Amino acid sequence: MFHHISGEAIPKFYGATTIGVRGQLVIPAEARKDLNLEHSTKVMVFGGPIREGLLIIKADSVAEILARADEMLVGVKDILQTKTDDSA
Q1: pTM above 0.85?
Q2: Are 44 and 57 a contacting pair, CB within 8 Å?
Q3: Comparison of pLDDT for 5 and 53, the residue scoring more
Q4: Are 68 and 62 within 8 A, CB to CB?
Q5: Could you give the CA distance from residue 47 to residue 51 in angstroms, rounded to a whole number?
Q6: Which pLDDT score is estimated for 82?
Q7: Less CB within 10 Å around the terminal CB: N or C of the chain?
Q8: Do 35 and 58 meet the contact criterion of CB atoms below 8 Å apart?
Q9: Half-sphere exposure of residue 70, counting CA atoms within 13 Å on the CB side?
């Protein structure tokens, strides 16, 4: 979830957790509630761009994110094509 400060969306901080000896970590209860994460929820784990963090996202959300990104790319392609056609 996000907090809105000065019109900007700021990711919510849910707390800190520690990785256990078996490599497991506990997602704070408030985060599980807010994000509707249950014991059987599939998640995908991605490494950060500077190898200092993780992004954990619900697996069923990834398809939606990719579909939105594809729509945006089609829109950009259409805009670029229109500009090319106008200059010809």
Answers
A1: no
A2: yes
A3: 53
A4: no
A5: 6
A6: 83
A7: C
A8: yes
A9: 6
